[in-house]
């Protein structure tokens, strides 16, 4: 039997990037997958490309009403929710001087408030089922410093994960955070950044950048029953960067 056979998995920010890869991996392990994203056109194309076991729902993760719509739709279609992957997120490459309050609140709402709302809306369903796994995608910058706004919210996700894990553990609901470092993406292959990327690799203890599937492998493990005694923990996948 595959690791996620018949599990219903919700992935926010699932239309592209790592969210899409998490969806592909969950499907390969037998899951029914719901991808949500603010970008409706890309989300619909992605869902169609992934096949009949995928449902797309347009979703502003910062809005409680949108979250409730997602849960109501999923329950109507599948009658359960086994896994929530809070993957949606944004970042800014700006200094403190250049970040406006509007910028700051946008990243807080998308990276932090969305995780709170996801846990709040999905956990009652999981309580009734007496089982569930919530996976919050943080970052190595949820452990060490980085860009203002991004770092703040990723630290918050780490703390929220621990608080939720303690509260939800009696209901057999596991809550964990994943902390990736730099992941190999097409952007890192561009000529304009290749030299900088090669120099950065030398600062990573493992001397390489993570492959996307390595992160999805970890997320799949946490979604599966193989991780049945893991909760409230940080799962770091950064090649040893935060061990320095």
Automatic annotation (TrEMBL):
The keyword Oxidoreductase applies. It is an enzyme of class 1 (oxidoreductase). Gene3D superfamilies: NAD(P)-binding Rossmann-like Domain. Keywords: Oxidoreductase. The keyword rRNA processing does not apply. SUPFAM superfamilies: NAD(P)-binding Rossmann-fold domains. Pfam families: adh_short_C2 (PF13561). Belongs to the short-chain dehydrogenases/reductases (SDR) family. NCBIfam families: PRK07231.1 (NF005559). This is Glucose 1-dehydrogenase. It comes from Staphylococcus felis.
């Amino acid at each position: 039997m595959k690791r996620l056979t018949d599990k219903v998995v919700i992935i926010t920010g699932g239309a592209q990037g790592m969210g899409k890869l998490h969806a592909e991996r969950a499907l390969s392990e037998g899951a029914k997958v719901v991808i949500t994203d603010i970008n409706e056109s890309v989300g619909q194309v992605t869902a169609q490309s992934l096949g009949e076991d995928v449902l797309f729902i347009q979703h502003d993760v910062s809005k409680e009403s949108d979250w409730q719509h997602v849960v109501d739709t999923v329950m109507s279609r599948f009658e359960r929710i086994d896994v929530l992957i809070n993957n949606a997120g944004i970042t800014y490459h700006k200094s403190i001087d250049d970040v406006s309050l509007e910028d700051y609140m946008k990243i807080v709402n998308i990276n932090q408030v969305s995780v709170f709302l996801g846990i709040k809306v999905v956990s009652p369903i999981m309580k009734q089922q007496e089982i569930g796994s919530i996976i919050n995608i943080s970052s190595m910058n949820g452990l060490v410093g980085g860009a203002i706004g991004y770092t703040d919210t990723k630290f918050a996700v780490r703390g929220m994960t621990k608080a939720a894990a303690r509260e939800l553990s009696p209901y057999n609901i596991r809550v964990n955070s994943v902390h990736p470092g730099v992941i190999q993406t097409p952007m890192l292959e561009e000529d304009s950044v290749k030299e900088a990327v090669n120099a950065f690799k030398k600062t990573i203890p493992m001397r390489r950048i993570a492959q996307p599937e390595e992160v999805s492998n970890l997320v799949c493990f946490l979604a599966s029953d193989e991780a049945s005694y893991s909760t409230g923990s940080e799962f770091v996948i950064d090649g040893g960067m935060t061990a320095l």
